[in-house]
């Protein structure tokens, strides 16, 4: 897959920064509708040494956050949302389907299904080599940054 946005381009859209910028690249983007991002899980990611020592496994909640960040890129890439922030508002029907391990690449796919005012709703799937690892319905609210 060709890279549409690298980390620097992602940082121009969402406010997340290291150590909490959790997506590496965007490989597909239809602003406001669909996004596919990737996270290459290196063995030295800071969370692996504590989750779990001797048996490192990707924390499910961080995978959910990765999906939310991918969705934020999708929504904030819309011309009318540039310069705004997307706040994670909820997750429903979350299912962790397989463990994700160091060295694997997570493919993070979010489809925005509808907007109700500033609130959006989407379907999110994280997978490794085509096998679903996490599925969820996510929601988010788009707003002006604090202080504006």
Automatic annotation (TrEMBL):
Subcellular location: Cytoplasm
A Gene Ontology BP annotation from the UniProt entry: lipid A biosynthetic process
GO CC annotation, single: cytoplasm
Main localisation: cytoplasm
Key words of the record: Cytoplasm, Lipid A biosynthesis, Lipid biosynthesis, Lipid metabolism, Lyase
GO molecular function: (3R)-hydroxyacyl-[acyl-carrier-protein] dehydratase activity
Cited CDD domains: FabZ
Reactions this protein catalyses: a (3R)-hydroxyacyl-[ACP] = a (2E)-enoyl-[ACP] + H2O
Domain of life of the organism encoding this protein: Bacteria
Described function: Involved in unsaturated fatty acids biosynthesis. Catalyzes the dehydration of short chain beta-hydroxyacyl-ACPs and long chain saturated and unsaturated beta-hydroxyacyl-ACPs.
PANTHER family according to UniProt: 3-HYDROXYACYL-[ACYL-CARRIER-PROTEIN] DEHYDRATASE (PTHR30272)
Protein name (record): 3-hydroxyacyl-[acyl-carrier-protein] dehydratase
UniProt source species: Ethanoligenens harbinense (strain DSM 18485 / JCM 12961 / CGMCC 1.5033 / YUAN-3)
């Amino acid at each position: 897959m060709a890279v549409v946005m690298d980390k620097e381009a992602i940082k121009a859209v969402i406010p997340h920064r290291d150590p909490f910028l959790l997506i590496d690249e965007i490989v597909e983007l239809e602003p406001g509708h669909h996004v596919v991002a990737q996270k290459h899980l290196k063995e030295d990611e800071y969370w692996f040494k504590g989750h779990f020592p001797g048996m490192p496994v990707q924390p499910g909640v961080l995978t959910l956050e990765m999906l939310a960040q991918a969705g934020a890129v999708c929504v904030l890439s819309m011309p009318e949302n540039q310069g705004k922030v997307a706040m994670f508002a909820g997750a429903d029907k979350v299912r962790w389907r397989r463990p994700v391990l160091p060295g694997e690449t997570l493919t993070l796919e979010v489809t925005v299904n509808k907007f109700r005012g500033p609130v959006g709703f989407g379907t999110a799937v994280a997978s490794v080599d085509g096998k679903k690892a996490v599925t969820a319905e996510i929601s988010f609210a788009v707003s002006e940054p604090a202080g504006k």
